[in-house]
What does this fold into?
Amino acid sequence: MAAKITSDTINKIARLANLKFTPDQLEGYTEKFASVVKYVEKLNSLDTKGIEPTAHATNGEGAVALKNTREDGVVKFSGTEEILDAAPKKSGRLVEVPKVIE
It folds into this structure.
């Protein structure tokens, strides 16, 4: 049986994630987390003997098989200008990419 989820637990998670919750939010998240943990506990009762671990949800066969949208391959560029010409977005001599860290 998993540890009981309390407001102290949620406060600790919030502090680690640099979040601040109002008392109402704290109560709501405590209930939501407890619900998730209760549901996951149900999974512990499943018999998984003889089932191999997987890295993917599919085995690559059938209608739900994951497929690449393009073939991977090496592309050789002769110089910086050719690379910049191939970039979808650029700023001067730099390739622009979406911001991923705030």
Remarks:
- The chain has a mean pLDDT of 84.
- The helical segments are 7-16, 23-43, 80-86.
